[in-house]
Amino acid sequence: MEIKKSPKADLEKRKGLHLEIGLVVALALALLAFNLKQYEKEVKQLQQREVIDEMEDVMITQPDQEMPEPEPEPQDNTTEIKIVDDNEELKNELGPIDAGDDANKEQQAYTPVEVKEEVEVVEEEIFQIVEENPEFPGGESALYKYLNDNLKYPTVARENGITGKVYIKFVVEKDGSISRAMIRKDIGGGCGAEALRVVNAMPRWKPGKQRGKAVRSEFTLPVSFELR
User: Fold this and answer.
1) Does residue 168 fall inside a structural domain?
2) 167: how many CB neighbours lie within 10 A of its CB?
3) What is the CATH number of the domain that holds 210?
4) Quick one: three-class SS letters along 64-93?
5) Which DSSP category does 205 fall into?
6) Is residue 94, in this structure, part of any structural domain at all?
């Protein structure tokens, strides 16, 4: 008896289709398994990272605990005072003290250092114009005679024919002495130095006066040099 197959039940015709479906299913299962492992790995890494972050937060936010400093032991500052009889001999608890030669030396008397106060000297005013002009002793004629008798014509000025007037400015002090003499105008040849020498050697003048009192006054003296 021949067995007849129904055309619908014939699987040979659908063998290729079934093979393709099997491959697709197998590939899908493989991809699913790979994705599942990758997902589990990412979940584990994420959980591990969260645990590490929590540990860091705990380490950072945890306050430092300082060890309490030991309290210092109380010192006994009590001073013991012993009351002894007036007749009792006191003993040196530190033992004998060798003072050496310093004990026999006499203490030198303290000599205070004298501090001298600086006194500021205020210079008196020098008057250029006064009510009574200073005057050479004996007057103007005596002044010219003094100059003629004491002036020496410088050799350089004589040899070079230098003539003219030298002006010497000086101050007549309240006592008539001459100070601050200087050459105001010179003609050269040593004439200025010679006139200055003679002025510094002059005797005391009669000082100038202001309101009846002697004052320091300024005076300018012309000294003539003429060849004869």
Assistant:
1) yes
2) 16
3) 3.30.2420.10
4) CCCCCCCCCCCCCCCCCCCCCCCCCCCCCC
5) P
6) no
What secondary structure does DSSP assign to 91-138, as a single string? Answer: --TT-----GGGGGSPPPPP-PPP-PPPPPPPPPPEESS-SB--B-TT
**Which band of pLDDT confidence, cut at 50, 70 and 90, is reported for residue 24?**
confident
Q: Is residue 13 part of a domain?
A: no
Residues 6+ apart with CB under 8 A from 139: none
- Does residue 146 lie in a domain region? yes
Instruction: Report the C-alpha gap between 194 and 192 in whole angstroms.
Output: 5
> Range of 153's domain?
126-225
Phi and psi at residue 199, to the nearest 5°: -65, -45
* Closest to 159 measured CA to CA, from 189, 196, 187: 189
End-to-end CA distance of the chain: 192
210/132 Cα distance (integer angstroms): 7
**pTM of this structure:** 0.48
Domain count, the chain: 1
pLDDT of residue 79: 46
The arithmetic mean of pLDDT across residues 126-151, rounded, is 94
